[in-house]
Amino acid sequence: MDLTYRPRRLRRTPSLREMVQEHSLNPANFIYPLFVHEGADVESINAMPGANRWTIDTLVAEVERAWNLGVRCIVLFPKIADSLKSEDGAECFNENGLIPRAIRRLKKELPDMTVMTDVALDPYSCDGHDGIVSSEGVVLNDETIEYLCRQAIVQAQAGADLIGPSDMMDGRVGAIREALDEEGFEHVGIISYTAKYSSAYYGPFREALDSAPRDTSVKPIPKDKSTYQMNPANAREAITEAQLDEQEGADILMVKPGLAYLDIIYRLREESDLPIAAYNVSGEYAMVKAASERGWIDESQVVLETLLSFKRAGADLILTYHACDAAKWLREA
Ligand code: PBG
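That is the input. Now the predicted structure with PBG docked in place:
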């Protein structure tokens, strides 16, 4: 055939392919989510094989392992005992609570690791919502923000480097920025869950923390988070959220979940010059684990291909439970 253009020329050898490769993975761009609890033992999580609820002691060892594999940031999620949960979730700003203690310990033993936190009430709320639920069953915006600001300050005081509001209340990024600045934490950054969708992909995470919305029959409890998390049918709205977060002072924007929302990552990349993070969430992790356990897919290849898709879509950072495994596979490759 008389073909002028033959794209296969640049695919012919490994070195040619490597030379023209557009995107690549670096463990320093991974953010490793970790669960921590008060118990004396490490607990496995049914729908998240390979992830655990760590004790503070074992958490330190796991974070050190991640550091040695090149991971530079972790994010902490607490499983709070039912006895400490309440309607307003006030345990979230207890300075001797699980998260502040875990942060202080990590910062003492591994000061160079960047520590990100999650700001929202759900792990601490007996209703399982990210905000305070009124007696009429409405998730209250402005009242919740006061609590979130106090939570963020306690996390910053403990040594957190990046505060991650995941609650989707309107105006919380600006309020947290102001609260941090007032307390002298102008150097602490905000990684905002900017476009966080009301997603069924969070199922395994809610199992890990036992944090799903639940009816306590004291008042009507919304059964899902759709009055504050975004409708999966909407894309333009993500741009509005991104513009607001930028104006309010976010340092990094996040899209969550990741895989079913690659178009949103791409749009935000076009819209903003801030770093963008993609959250490869618990349900995405569980699907890969389940299929690979059955031998239906090759786990390492599927994981690395998936993580690369976030980069290709425009993400700079990837929150992933596969962080340590992926870092190891990259090293071996
Ligand atoms: C809580 C929070 C959730 C996740 C991160 N922070 C769950 C939710 O909003 O219900 C989900 C993470 C995952 O599924 O991996 N605000």
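The domain at 23-332 is CATH 3.20.20.70 (TIM Barrel).
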